[in-house]
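=== RUN LOG ===
request id: a7f3
mode: sequence -> structure
chains: 1
length: 174
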Amino acid sequence: MKTFTSHGSGVFERGDLAAVGDNVVFEAGVLVFHPETVHLGSNVYVGHNTILKGYYKNRMSIGNDTWIGQQCFFHSAGGITIGDAVGIGPGVRILTSTHRDPGVDRPIMDGEIAFAPVVIGDGSDLGVGSTILPGVTLGKGVQVGAGAVVAQDVPDFAVVAGVPARVLRLRGGA
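=== RESULT ===
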């Protein structure tokens, strides 16, 4: 039988973070795990009950002027880089690791963990309930539709939606 250990309470002090800029707002219920790997710019808003799940390696970097809605979940085992002036709707999930297939004779949870970073370009906007999967890079000014599951890289100024997400058009003549 496997044993599991706690990752801690997620309760943190600002001084526990690797870096934190000016005018950062944490609403009630925000949890931060491995805060020593979390870097926040200035003018960042983190909504109620969001979980910033740092990891003992890699880092989570959130740029200036970024808004993160309520009940988001960011898991930065593979590393997360979020640019400046990014809007992230409530309930967004950003994942950076997955289990490799160990074969049909073993549970998936027994598979080796694979890590892949997520990068979100400046000025992007992630719709309510969207999910960004490991290894995805969103270019500058990308708009992700509500509920989309983004499994592939997205070029600058693209509008994507669907499950899996696909490019619908480019924004503003880009």
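=== NOTES ===
The chain has one domain: 14-100+108-173.
The chain has a mean pLDDT of 95.
=== END ===
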